Amino acid sequence: MSLAVSMFSVLPVPHRFQSGERLDRKRAGQVLLWLPALGALLGAVAGLAAVAVLERDKAASLLAAAVGVLLLAALAGGLHLDGLADTADGLASRAPREQALEIMRRSDIGPFGVLAIAGLLLLDTAALSEIGAAGHPWRVLAALVVAATTGRVAATQAGLTRVPAARSGGFGALVTGSVRVGPVLALTALTLAGGGLLAWSSEASLPGWLITQVAALTLGYLGRRQISARLGGMTGDVFGAVIETTTALTLLGMALAR
């Protein structure tokens, strides 16, 4: 867990992972399997901040949503948003596979990357604001926990052994194919069960939230397959894009389901 926290969040840990450290496939798979738990933790911290705003002023659902969404992104170090932006730039270029991968490898962000980040944060904030306006402050915390966990389960699913890597090197090549079906199925079931429990405890629509999680994971899978077909496999940036888009789809569905 501490390695996942070190690599994919800004939370303090005794030893932070450095880019020069060696990470083998076994450890990479363990990191992927801890991602949903990390998502639940980050969602809970961001959700508590949003709840604090709502407890101060129950009418401030938009402000609470902005605080929660931005804090969740900040706690993850903006890493997955960066992956989303790079993926958007690569796909929108309509360039051949190798050139698209080179665009994604660059450190700069193009116009489509900026649009992807801005649009996703706007969607997340609007959806969470609708959830907060429903009148149950703690539902915002539940929604952020469920969405952040579901998004990271989608990334764990993308690390299954049958999923190819687009490059021979890099983090994406290391983690792709590093997890087996059994643990991923168990994590998916636990995430769905946890989503149902949080929906029930926050007086939300239990069937609506469960259907939303399943739909978001399904759409995340279909989107990932399309991207993999375009790029020839997964990259680290695509993992980030999968997390962010699945999280957004989950929040959107929960907002509509209430």
Features:
single chain, 0% strand
The proportion of strand residues reads: under 5%
Distance between the termini: 32 Å
Sketch the major β-sheet.
none
Provide mean pLDDT, rounded: 89
Number of strands: 0
Shape: globular
Structural class: mainly alpha
Low-confidence stretches: none
Number of helices: 11
Number of domains: 1
C-alpha Rg (nearest Å): 17 Å
Q: Element order, helices and strands? A: HHHHHHHHHHH
Helix content: over 70%
Structure description:
- This protein has 11 helices and no strands.
- The protein has helices spanning 2-8, 25-56, 61-75, 79-92, 97-105, 111-132, 137-157, 171-175, 181-201, 206-231, 236-257.
- The protein is globular and about 50 Å long.
- The two termini are 32 Å apart.
Summary?
The protein is mostly helical and 258 residues long. It is built from 11 helices and no strands.
What is this structure's SSE topology?
Blueprint: H1 2-8, H2 25-56, H3 61-75, H4 79-92, H5 97-105, H6 111-132, H7 137-157, H8 171-175, H9 181-201, H10 206-231, H11 236-257
Helix pairs in contact: 1-2, 2-3, 2-7, 3-6, 4-5, 4-6, 4-11, 6-7, 6-11, 7-9, 7-10, 7-11, 9-10, 10-11
